[in-house]
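Backbone shape codes:
***
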Amino acid sequence: MENDVTTRLDGKVAVVTGAGSGLGRQHALLLAKQGAKVVVNDLGGSVNGVGGDSAAADKVVAEIKAAGGDAVPNYESVATQESAEKIIKSAVDAFGKIDILVNNAGILRDKSFGKSDLKDFSEVFQVHYWGTVYCTKAAWNLMNEQKYGRVIFTTSIAGTSGNFGQSNYGSAKAGMLGLMNCLAIEGRKNNVLVNAISPGALTRMTGNLGIDESFMKKLDPAFVSPAVAWLASERCDVTATIITAAAGGFGRLHYFETKGVQFDPSKPITVDMFDQQFDKINDLSTADPSTAGTEGKTQERLDTLSA
């Protein structure tokens, strides 16, 4: 029973970007079911970011209200600082505050790197990376001042592991993890936690990725949202954490570093020395989770010289 209470979102205000369909819609519906008041943001554009239509956000708001929840629509783009600020302002204007931000909005411009146009990189980054920066920046001081906030980024296996034809999308999704790691350090003292979801779901954005149809049927976006709702709750006590979610399966993804080797820094270090020790450097069986901060394993390795 205690868990049921602490995972509830009664009294909390959430913004979900790109919430007119797919993952964002399911996130918004579940956050509202859990008790949150929700700003349903969606520009209403196509998968590649063209156009706009208020109907998508309006429909989700209507669904939430029909189920007894409370929500308002917002039709701004995440792709400019000014419009992102309006998204967060709509939460404050409607409900008085902002507690939860789910950065979900996205577009696709899939092409192999050799055939891609750098304009596609710019536009994909503008939505995925800069959209996440802009919305988070607009909510950041408000959350820190009230000593509470839950920020959720949407990353992808295309960023953490790579995927053919998604160099622009994958690099944007990886870039936001650096932002997550830094903001997690800055926000922790004020109970502002920053985490990421790496989803696998059948949506209009994944419909043309060439994945086996029988497998895709298992990827209901609703199966991802419970993890997002938990990360949005007071029950969540982790930060800088990447949760993978697909087909009802959940895991944690993290950076690791091998034990490696330590040469004496008071003496010359050569390419041949590195080459001779590469198998040991590359031995993942010795890997430990990376930790926050700039030191990494440097001092730990240096200590082995005097051991």
Q: What stands out?
A: The radius of gyration is 21 Å.
